[in-house]
Amino acid sequence: MDIRSLRYFLMVADQGGFTAAAEQLHIAQPAVSMAIRKLEQTLDLPLFNRHERRVTLTDEGEVLARHARLILQAVADAEREVRELHALERGEVRIGIPSMLGSYYFPPILMAFRHRYPGVRLEVIEAGTRKIQTMIHRGDIDMGVIVTDTPPTDLETHRFLQDQMMAILPADHALAKADTISYDAFFAEELVLFKEGYFHREVIDRISEEVGVTPNIGFETNLIPLIKQIVAHDYGITTLLKMVVADDPALVAVPFTVPVWLDLSLAWRKGHRLSRANQTFVDLVLEQAPASHSR
């Protein structure tokens, strides 16, 4: 059993097929099939159920997959740490950030880090908070930004921002000059929302369930500029962090009568030692964090 075989094995498991795995690995499909066959012969166990269109893991394959992910992540961690010198002349930071924060909060931090440590490679992945947690567990990224109103027990989390979700309305909307907006008034409007899996959407789903209403969703998109245009042209309203519309005179941010506060944190696998590059990035994010607001 070698590292390459385990990597091929996990790619087949994740892609659900040998051909798709070969495409992702940029190698010929027979090479993948041969590696898996040798792995099964070495273990004297079937690792996949071969169906006509898709392969799935056997019970033995599920066990191996769990250990293989840990092994490959440990190897990747060791390689990164060995490559990094005492000074941050080299290294890599792989971070998942939801689009709202990636577009309006993190750019100055990312540029400041790049300016201080030009030899460190930054890889920023845009995704919803649920997918980010999955990617952290799988080792696809080193850390990510998640909502931690209820901190996950299997992740190390450090809060860097507490901010309020606001109702976003066109400037000429009847409620634009209101001090606050009730949930009933908000849900009476046609809504423009992110797709499921993003904290923006989870906030709305949670509140609608609490008040017992079904949101009237007119548009679903993760494109923030499109959301802002739709709201500005009075085709619906939405909810975003105030920073997203701070410089847009066509839009107004109104707090909810019952405030909706979010705790946003950097997260990584619990018990995982961050590389020097990653720890330095975490330190910079926490250093730049604004003072917490009181709820």
UniProtKB/TrEMBL annotation:
Pfam families in UniProt: HTH_1 (PF00126), LysR_substrate (PF03466)
InterPro entries the record matches: HTH-type_LysR_regulators, LysR_HTH_N, LysR_subst-bd, WH-like_DNA-bd_sf, WH_DNA-bd_sf
Gene3D superfamilies (UniProt xref): 3.40.190.290, Winged helix-like DNA-binding domain superfamily/Winged helix DNA-binding domain
Highest taxon, organism lineage: Bacteria
Keywords: DNA-binding, Transcription, Transcription regulation
HTH lysR-type domain: residues covered: 1-58
Gene Ontology molecular-function annotations: DNA binding; DNA-binding transcription factor activity
GO cellular component: cytosol
Residues of the signal peptide: none
Listed CDD domains: PBP2_LTTR_substrate
PANTHER family: HTH-TYPE TRANSCRIPTIONAL REGULATOR YBHD, LYSR FAMILY TRANSCRIPTIONAL REGULATOR
Name of the protein described by the UniProt record: Transcriptional regulator
Organism, as annotated: Marinobacterium halophilum
